[in-house]
Design brief:
The complex is a heterodimer of chains A (426) and B (208).
Chain A: H1 3-12, H2 15-50, E1 55-59, H3 63-70, E2 81-82, H4 83-90, E3 95-107, E4 110-115, H5 117-122, E5 127-130, E6 138-141, H6 143-149, E7 156-157, E8 160-161, E9 176-182, E10 193-196, H7 197-208, H8 213-234, E11 248-249, E12 251-256, H9 259-272, E13 275-278, H10 280-323, H11 325-333, H12 338-379, H13 390-411, H14 419-424
Parallel strand pairs in A: 4-10, 6-9
Antiparallel strand pairs in A: 1-12, 1-13, 2-11, 3-4, 3-8, 3-12, 5-9, 6-10, 7-9
Chain B: E1 2-10, E2 16-18, E3 23-24, E4 29-33, H1 40-47, E5 55-60, E6 63-64, H2 70-80, E7 81-84, H3 96-104, H4 109-122, H5 138-150, E8 156-160, H6 168-184, E9 188-193, E10 205-207
Parallel strand pairs in B: 4-9, 4-10, 7-8, 8-9
Antiparallel strand pairs in B: 1-2, 1-3, 1-5, 5-6
Classes of the chains: A alpha+beta (426), B alpha/beta (208).
Chain lengths: 426, 208
């Protein structure tokens, strides 16, 4: 029989003891892994989603809100800006590309975004099936949204006002038709329903003119025709509806073509126009900085619990070694050496911490899975269940080292084990 | 098999204990009798190499115990000596069979299994193999203790007060079992006791 088997049997022979000393360890491990995963994935996803853009231009307000709303699609927009005002930026020499986005509607809680197909390509989005929108009220659906909403090519989608699902104010007259479904890209695309700017404008222009019902159909038809032409045009360059001086967009997402853009444009926009500019990377850094201090605090607490759990393993092992003193003496009678008894104690400590770590890790991942369903329904961001990260391997190393030290200290009495006396004592 | 000469032992704060010389040939049985407190158990531990004598010589088989270092002593004891304790000692986390396998060591193999099954059959423990030791009756624990003292076919079996707290019937049974099993595994047997009922079973006796 191997020592390792005996160590295992010893460990499970007192389940209550085992559970108690594992509980603390699991708790701290689950806390650390949960928080690490959360901050890692949140940070990673935010970074990924802001990469295509250097600057967002939108209505005045909080720059963080602007970034959250227009780039990350979490918050409400600060307001609208005139397309007319934004247009000079699109053709600015320092600008590599500038993509207008416009929204205000949702379908069952998923945002309907009016933009150009270029928006999809900046995120590397590809069609899983169907085609991109090129007629009014064509709509392309992100992978996660399609899955959640059960949308297929040809499905009709009726938007409701606002960004949050409500029971009223649906644009019944203008269903969107799903023409394409995107592949999963693990970016904001997954959660969006994307259509052309004109479609969004149309549905809203329409609403605004609701009282003039007689003209409604007429105007609408006109727009349809116009949009068809306009779209064909749109595929070649980005000259939007020229006649539409009053058109509004939510924001303009800008990529600089020259470093000078970063130096000059934000200041020019903030001081010289009615719009504001926000730098996504800066705002996200600020946000992560806030998150970071929270992460540090939780990690600090969790590490303190880890130390306490090492102490509890030490005490639990010390206790069992005292209780098993006679059995250890018996093993010496059987011819086992002191070193083997030490090995027995170390193995038991190691089992305990491995089991505790595994349990804690699983709990941490379970937490991520549960939290993911929350963030997904609330913010459209889902968290992935990832294999162990480098940081987690380091954590495992720390845990094992701590438990080996604890077990070693607890097992020190075996060196002074007086076999004859132990066996004689009642 | 066992040969001692001028064996002396002193506990740190205790008086000097002197033991009569022992000469025990291979496969013979010896009874060491004496009232409580004369150092019977101490002598047993000296013979088992669990205590080291202050002076004197102690040879088991061809091996002088005083010439062995700690590690060699552990190995020697594990292989050549079997102990039957007054107060039974088992590994609580293991079942009956596992306790026996642990005592047999890792190299026991198929022969070891045969030996184990034969032994538990003789001792009437064949149905208890997968029980926890704590689930055994007093009598079964007694028999398991004997099995653990002898399963690895030691050269020398040392039994410490094996009949204490037993009625006459059981006293007789235990002594007979010990003698039979010692004969089967060709072990020398030394029984240490203050129980004078055992006297009649042994021709070879030393009184302390």
């Amino acid at each position: 029989m191997r020592m390792i088997y005996l160590a295992f049997r010893n460990m499970i022979s007192k389940p209550l003891n085992l559970i108690l000393s594992m509980l603390l360890l699991s708790l701290s491990i689950s806390l650390v892994t949960f928080v690490l995963q959360l901050s890692d994935q949140m940070g990673g996803q935010l970074e990924k989603n802001i990469t295509p853009f250097d600057m967002v231009v939108g209505a005045k307000g909080s720059p963080l809100q602007l970034v959250l709303a227009s780039v990350l699609h979490i918050d409400n927009p600060t307001g609208n800006i005139k397309l007319k005002e934004a247009r000079p930026l699109m053709n600015h020499p320092f600008v590599k590309y500038a993509i207008p986005v416009s929204y205000g509607d949702n379908y069952k809680g998923f945002r309907i975004l009016g933009t150009t197909s270029e928006y999809i390509s900046t995120y590397g989005g590809e069609l899983a099936e169907g085609k991109f929108f090129n007629r009014p009220f064509d709509i392309v659906v992100g992978a996660a949204a399609a899955e959640k909403l059960g949308l297929q090519i040809g499905s009709e989608v009726v938007g409701s006002h606002g960004l949050i699902e409500t029971d009223f104010g649906a644009h019944d007259e203008h269903p969107y038709i799903v023409t394409g479904i995107l592949k999963r890209s693990n970016t904001v695309l997954d959660q969006l329903l994307i259509t052309s700017l004109e479609s969004v404008w149309d549905s809203h222009a329409h609403e605004g003119e609701a009282p003039k019902s007689s003209e409604e159909e007429h105007k609408h038809d006109e727009e349809h025709e116009h949009d068809d032409q306009d779209h064909a045009h749109d595929n070649h360059d980005h000259d939007y509806v020229e006649e539409d001086a009053d058109r509004e967009i939510t924001s303009l997402l800008v990529r600089f073509g020259s470093p000078l853009g970063m130096v000059q444009l934000p200041r020019y926009i903030n001081e010289g126009t009615n719009m504001q500019s926000a730098l996504p990377s800066f705002e996200v850094q600020r946000l992560l900085g806030l998150l970071g201090s929270g992460v540090k605090t939780v990690n600090g607490i969790a590490l303190a619990i880890l130390l306490v759990s090492a102490l509890s393993i030490f005490i639990s092992l010390l206790k069992t070694i005292r209780e098993r003193k006679r059995e250890l003496a018996l093993l010496r009678v059987y011819g086992f050496r002191t070193g083997q008894l030490l090995y027995l104690a170390l193995m038991e400590g190691l089992f305990l911490s491995l089991l505790g770590f595994a349990l804690g890790w699983a709990l941490g991942r379970l937490g991520i899975a549960l939290f993911s369903s929350y963030t997904e329904s609330e913010y459209g961001y889902s968290l992935l269940l990832r294999p162990p990260s480098t940081q987690e391997y380091i954590l495992l190393g720390i845990t094992l080292c701590l438990s080996i030290v604890a077990a070693f200290l607890a097992a020190l009495p075996v060196f002074n084990l007086n076999v004859a006396k132990t066996l004689t004592d009642e | 098999m066992v040969h001692t000469q001028d064996l002396e032992f002193a506990y740190p704060e205790g008086a000097l204990l002197q033991f009569p010389d022992i000469q025990l040939p291979t496969n013979e049985h010896l009874l060491i009798l004496g009232p409580s407190g004369v150092g019977k158990t101490t002598l047993l531990y000296l013979l088992a190499g669990l205590l080291l004598p202050k002076s004197g010589q102690l040879r088991i088989g061809d091996t002088s115990l005083e010439s062995l270092n700690r590690k060699q002593l552990d190995q020697f004891r594990g292989k050549h000596i079997g102990l039957v304790f007054q107060k039974y000692q088992f590994i609580g986390a293991l079942n009956v069979e596992e306790n026996l396998r642990l005592r047999q060591g890792r190299k026991a193999g198929k022969e070891g299994k045969k030996r184990r099954m034969a032994l538990v059959n003789r001792l009437g423990l064949q149905d208890q193999l997968h029980k926890k030791v704590s689930a055994l009756s007093q009598g079964q624990q007694q028999r398991l203790a004997i099995a653990l003292g002898i399963i690895h076919m030691p050269d020398l079996v040392l039994a410490d007060e094996p009949t204490a707290n037993l009625d006459n019937d059981n006293c007789e049974k235990v002594i007979n079992l010990l003698k039979e099993e010692a004969n089967i595994s060709k072990s020398s047997l030394i029984i240490i006791t203050h129980d004078y009922r055992v006297m009649k079973h042994f021709d070879n006796r030393i009184e302390l």
